[in-house]
Design a protein that fits this description.
By secondary structure, the chain is an all-beta fold. The chain has one domain: Jelly Rolls (Sandwich). Helix content is 2%, strand content 50%. The protein contains 1 helix and 25 strands.
Amino acid sequence: MPNLLVKPQGNNGFVHDITPESAGWTYVGFALHRLAAGEATSGDTGEREVCLVLVAGKARVTVRGEDFGELGERMTPFEGGPFSVYVPRGATYKVTATTDLELGVCSAPGGKGFEAQVIRPDRHKQMTRGKGTNTRYVTNIMPEDDGAAQSLLVVEVITPGGHTSSYPPHKHDEDNLPAESFLEETYYHRLNPSQGFAMQRVYTDDRSLDETMAVENGDVVLVPKGYHPVAAIHGYDLYYLNVMAGPSRAWKFNNAKEHAWLFTGV
């Protein structure tokens, strides 16, 4: 199995390029570009579909020659909601940075009948999830109930320093609907201030997979199976962008039984 912790390839340009082949799985791809104003990146989705997430900065986006204009508001992922663009299977796209830009390219197998569209930050309101030091702030970009894609599920989360997230531990590694769905997942992490770190554990019930990682700013964690809780260290807020995909576009998970007591009285 490939290393679950993927470090950035430098600070600018093509920073991450995670493919199903490099990850050793079937569905999820994730790339990250950091561009200066005036620089551009382009692509052809082929048999896949793509969600372009403006993690930070502004850009002009075109799909199949259709100009969606300049998009973006926030200059860091910790200030406001995301602008994103869905690009269907068999389409070309181009993204031209109009400010310094951090662009996430989320991908999965595509299907017919889906149209390119802008996903504005007010389309899905930010939700507060959890209580106490398990409180975090969730913004769906492409949730399962929007009917906008064949495979992709995309969400971003802000976890305040000293808080936990993806917790109590849950998993989605069995294709057993309606009880549970099989979904591969990537976590792209950012920290504020950037010199901080967080902790993430990926493990299965039988501990055949059990890795705990110190996650630094710009790292990606691969979750091929198992539980995957995250802890943000005191003093450093954590942002992560999740990409999920599997044989069904459904997010159905099961919680770790030994931690079920955490759901009572909290």
